[in-house]
Amino acid sequence: MTQPVIAQGLLAWSPSRGLTPAAEATAPLLVADSWLVRDGRVRGLERHRERFLRSCGEVGGPPLRRLLEFWRDMTDALPRTGEWFPRVELAPEFRTGTADPESHASPRALELHLLLRHAPPLGTDVRVWAAGQSDPRAVPRRKGPDLGALARVRERASGAGAEEAVLVAPSGAVLEAATASVLWWEDDTLCLPPPRLPVLPGVTVALIQDRARREGLRVDHRERTVAELDGREVWLVNALHGIRPVTGWIGGPLEAAPARRAPEWRAWLDDIMEPLPEK
Questions:
Q1: CB 176 within 8 A of CB 163
Q2: Is 208 helix (H, G, I), strand (E, B) or coil?
Q3: What is the Cα–Cα distance from 236 to 179, expressed in whole angstroms?
Q4: pLDDT higher than 90, residue 27
Q5: Among residues of the chain, what percentage have pLDDT more than 70?
Q6: How far apart are CA 48 and CA 135, in angstroms?
Q7: pLDDT at 103 over 70
Q8: For residue range 54-87, what is the model confidence (pLDDT) as tens digits?
Q9: Quick one: which of 207, 218, 226, 223 has its CA closest to 272?
Q10: Cα(213)–Cα(217) distance, rounded to whole angstroms?
Q11: Alpha carbon of 195 to those of 34, 55, 119, 222, 254: distances in Å?
Q12: DSSP secondary structure code for residue 249 in this structure
């Protein structure tokens, strides 16, 4: 079903009606994925689709055919002008008079959503809370269920004067930030946490790794504590902001290295944005 461009807000999808306005979900999302759309261009959209489809399959979501129909209608509905930060969702469906949304005792219908929202101001750098935060996520490898817990981590970081916080494993090893993956440079090696640690498979991180390997740069998985990032060029990476170099560590003795590499890599990420599919 071809969809017109729709004003921002939450839209529920069905095969017969397409996308229609919906009330905000009352229970944690099962799956979510989001990306930046700038004047009808986006990067890594196919990778976002594959991650969303895979995650929906892991939780017993709709059949693949329905997911692909939703994705087509969702893509058609995305605006082709301006800066947007849409989010696709798989959520429990609760109607008036049904079971308590906090109850998991009875089977729940599932609903596919598009949250159409303007992009917030984009950052070119970031200040990070120097205190490593214990990982509060219940499902770290799937985006969606833990968005509320991660929002609370960011609120605490904001209260300390920072914009982001780094999550750490019980060992103290860096995992990722509340809304971004963490990369850093050790000499000429691009480093990131080992995949055996509970980290979300980031789309933008994968794009960066692919480029690094194409250019013959060494990429290595290393366990480091927050303190061991002292004096290094550290990047927070996500689909919204792209690459944000850490320019300040708040509330600790860590120093941020000059962001020598980040500007060129940020420009490259902008250059690889591609037009949305034709409607």
A1: no
A2: helix
A3: 9
A4: no
A5: 92
A6: 24
A7: no
A8: 999 999 999 999 999 999 999 999 999 999 999 9
A9: 207
A10: 5
A11: 22, 17, 30, 10, 25
A12: E
* Residue 86, token pair as written in the block: 């849409």
User: What 3-state DSSP class applies to 46?
Assistant: helix
Element (H, E) at 71: helix 64-77
Q: How confident is the model at residue 7 (pLDDT cuts 50, 70, 90)?
A: low
State yes or no: pLDDT of 1 exceeds 60.
no
- Contacting residues for 193 by C-beta, under 8 A, at least 6 apart: 173, 174, 175, 176, 182, 199, 221, 222, 223, 224
Write down the residue that tokens 């480029």 correspond to: 211
pLDDT band at 245 (very low <50, low <70, confident <90, very high): very high
**Could you tell me where the beta strands, DSSP code E, fall in 25-84?**
31-34, 37-38, 41-42, 83-84
First to last CA, the chain: 10
Which residue in the block uniquely carries the two structure tokens 């000059």?
258
Distances (CA, A) of 84 to 8, 18, 58, 192: 9, 20, 28, 28
